[in-house]
Amino acid sequence: MRHGPDGNTVIIRLRVAGTLLLVAHLLYVGWLTLRPLDVPWVTAPNFHPLAGIRADMALGPLPAARLMGKALLLLAPLGVLLPMVGGRIAVSPLGSLARTVAAGALFSLAIELLQTGVPGQVVDVDSLLLNTAGVALAHLAVVPVGRSLLRRGRRRGRPRGRALLRDDAPQGATPTIPRVGIAP
User: Fold this and answer.
1) 81 near 25, Cβ under 8 Å?
2) For residue 76, which of 53, 92, 134, 155 is within the disulfide window of CB 3.0 to 4.6 Å?
3) How far, in Å, CA of 124 to CA of 6, rounded?
4) Which residue pairs from 27-33 have beta carbons closer than 8 angstroms and sit at least 24 positions apart in sequence?
């Protein structure tokens, strides 16, 4: 495999790895959250924001941290995998965060809506909030640092003092057909 001056092969490999990891993670999350549970009783759905978090906090610090940590970590890998699949290095950090958090919120909402038809699974608006917060925290912790490292690596591969010329573009020169003249 040829390595171009701008390291496009690294980006392609990251996108492929990100896609495979994203599919694997979403399959795991689907299995974990959408499988029927055989339980003797089920709690009522929670449609009041922060009511479940307050109830978890009333259990004590350790059980609350365990329960809320599970919800934070469930979709947190999406905060890293979604930008990885996108493969963009030079992008607005705020725009990337907004897109990633919105996609994470939509995934979490889809899971909650699908849980309405699964026996033993309960809809909880607080898990939607915590899942989305986990996506945002993971994105903020990993993606800016990863992108800066990739940008630094791309600059190291390019000869210093020389800008990339139009003829050096990865697509190559525009093909022409010599027998066809220019229109009158």
Assistant:
1) yes
2) 134
3) 46
4) 29/74, 29/75, 29/111, 30/111, 32/74, 33/74, 33/111, 33/115, 33/121
Single-letter residue type at 138: A
Please give the model's pTM, rounded to 2 decimal places.
0.77
HEC per residue, 11-64:
HHHHHHHHHHHHHHHHHHHHHHHHCCCCCCCCCCCECCCCHHHHHHHHCCHHHH
Residue 79 token pair: 């905060």
User: In this predicted model, what pLDDT tens digit does every residue of 35-63 receive, in sequence order?
Assistant: 998 888 888 888 999 999 999 999 999 99
- What is the Cα–Cα distance from 146 to 18, expressed in whole angstroms? 13
Helix (H, G, I), strand (E, B) or coil at 113: helix
Q: What is the pLDDT of residues 142-182, one digit of tens each?
A: 999 999 988 887 777 655 544 444 545 566 666 666 676 66
CB 128 within 8 A of CB 101: no
d(Cα 156, Cα 146) in Å, to the nearest integer? 15
Cα separation, 131 vs 158, whole angstroms: 40
Mean pLDDT of 106-115: 95
